[in-house]
Predict the 3D structure of the following.
Amino acid sequence: MELNLHPIATKCYVSGREFAEHDRVVSYLVREASGEVARRDLLESEDGRFMPPAFIFCRWVVVFKPRRGDDNSERNLKLTAENLFLTLAIPSGATSETIDDSSQGINTPLLQFLALMMERKRLIKPVGFTDDGVRQIYEHRASHQRYEVPVGDLNQEFFIKIQEHLGVLVGTPKPKAAVVPAPVAATEPVAAEVRSEG
């Protein structure tokens, strides 16, 4: 699953100020009223002034690093499900200072769905639960880094709730063409002539 989104902006969406190296930047993945999926990057200090649209897929905070001239901009435009998961999930053993509590409630449904999808693709594997049983621990197979995801009830109601938003985010699958049975040639019953020899 690939999401084609722009890389981090170079200036704040709210104030218009250019980002400087080491600025804390809040990123939102949102759906606008028009249905368009967009990324909004703003200074953490401006977060209170941001008027988000009706639906927020997720929110995360990063430390800004200016792009180098040799960066592959085409590669940076691809935000895959895997690196979105790695951005949103809590690294195992993270302290309360490094966890962005304000994003956890917003991100939880998408994060739970991404974890389910990545586990099915064998990109992560479950290795247990936190001591309090509130989060499941997954190991990312490629890096062996462990991440924590809030435990949730992935029932029918959960999927109904998230289905519409995921369809907008990743596109809905194309309907399969219906298979039309081939017409059956009408065959005349062959009358058997029975002769009696006598």
About this structure: Strands lie at 2-4, 24-31, 37-43, 55-63, 78-80, 90-91, 124-129, 135-140, 146-150. Residues 2-170 form one domain. The longest strand covers residues 55-63.
